Known about the structure:
Strand content: under 5%
Shape: elongated
Distance between the termini: 82 Å
Helix content: over 70%
Number of helices: 9
Order of helices and strands: HHHHHHHHH
Amino acid sequence: VPLGSTNLPVIPLALISIIGGFMSFSLVFFVSQAYSRLCAQYDQSMRIEGRIFNLAYLARSNLLYAEAHRLLRYLNATHVLGYTGLSLVYTDDNLFDIMNDKHQLLTFEELGRIREVGADGGGAAYREVIGWCVELLFDLNKAKPDKNETVAENPIEPLTLQTLVSEVLALRGCIGALYDYDDQPIPFVYVHILFFLTLFYLPLMTYAVALQFPIGSEFYVPDIIGSLLVFVNVVFVVGLREIGRNLISPYGDDSHDLSVIHYITFTMMASRRILA
């Protein structure tokens, strides 16, 4: 084993570059996957807004104002409940209750049913309200066979009813896609291997670079260059790793996470403006 001036074994940088190649590939792939998931979830959030806007326009054109307003209440409640059950950061207390008290999304009886279902930690609550939307639309069109009710005086056209129901179910699919992403994150084994690669690579890289420059030299330029190389390498590896880790779960309380409160309030105000 060749010895340096400090009688320490010298590790050729070519050997370190082998580990660095595997690590770089894994790191870039990890960050790319995390960013792709972030963009896909953002697209789903925007599709949720779009579905609610579509339904608001259809309701304004085909339903009476009271009926359209009731449907819009349910849609906005679905929007809030979807995020409430999705993330541990947003709960019944700090999100849904505040939005419901401020905007009167659900009545006391409807709220009681949501309490029974449970708004935290799952999608049962938003799926319950989706069911109310579908039932409302069919009730406006005709009586259910098991109820002694007459057919509605102004039934919705079959094609219009089909379009409304399809949009409601598409809204359910968009919210459900967010839960699918949350249920299947990037495999833990892959993330674990990446962290181990960086754990071994960075100290070895620092050691190898340190022994490339002579000790006791009058010139400090080699030391400065070596320090900069190590610093840039650490910033690159650790920085990208942390960026990828933060992008995996975009519905949190970090400053770079997606703006859930803005999405909810903007959709609520814009959809109500459509009916106004």
